[in-house]
Amino acid sequence: MSLHVVIGAGPVGSALATLLAGQEHDVRVVTRSGRGPVHPRIARVSADVAVPGALMPHVAGAVALYNCANPASYQAWARDWPPLAAGMLRAAEDSGAVLVTMGNLYGYGPVSGPITADHPLAATTRKGRLRARLWEQALDAHHAGRLRAVEIRASDYLGPAVTPATGLLAHYAGPVLSGRPTWVLGDPDAPHSWTYVPDAARTLAAAAADERAWGQAWHVPTNRPVPVRAVLEELARIAGRPAPRIRRLPRVAVTALSPVVPVLRELRELLYQFERPFEMDAAATVAALRVEPTPWSEILAATAADWAGRLAPAGHVTA
């Protein structure tokens, strides 16, 4: 079968590599550490994609190059994203591999109503403008005929393997599943779209294989929006834990703590996503790529089983 190269071994990169290997493709997972999922068809490679030319030896002969990378922290985005993206653009251009990027919804900025993939990129935040600019660079190269590019966009992640560092909901769920109060940002009762990691992997694979998808962005098929409070209540119920005790961290507190808590400083500009309804519309993806979202009940069951054991092991659960 064909060779696929996945950059990054976080939840999405690992799920994608495992999916492709299960389809009997040869897969190379490239990270700086050389880590990644274990499978007979997956080769784990250590390389720094940000170093010019470092990626090319590992992409030669590949049909697709998947950008599932992410800098270690929000604070590193401005420094780390441009060279990472440049390295992958050059590798896709030189190798002929389709460049498939895992993106998010930051580039749209605040939107009233459901967000579609053809909505203007009108970000008002530093991180949103950065993500929009990186996609526009890839799209310009696509239109110039230098490479073939497509971007898949997701909302906040949930599912097995998501950690507090890779998903805000997992950060909230750890205390809840341990029987402790949890502090949340924004309005816990505002409807919010959540992306299941395996659905993101399936959408990436589908877009890479369908040339009709190239040259545009697509949203990961996602279930109806559900408020933070409702998701946490359902996860606690399925895991057999007490009803969650949810505390809202006011915006004024976020602002006051931002100078001394770096992650809050970075999250403050994204609070609009949680202070009012935030809904992603992926109907176009379902129609064109034939990818359906996993049923919500299955998502919750798989997520609760993993998070209850990993984020709140039995010995750390309070009565």
UniProtKB/TrEMBL annotation:
Signal peptide: none annotated. InterPro entries: Epimerase_deHydtase, NAD(P)-bd_dom_sf. It comes from the Bacteria. Residues 6-211 form the NAD-dependent epimerase/dehydratase domain. Pfam families: Epimerase. It comes from Georgenia ruanii. Gene3D superfamilies: NAD(P)-binding Rossmann-like Domain. This is NAD-dependent epimerase/dehydratase family protein.
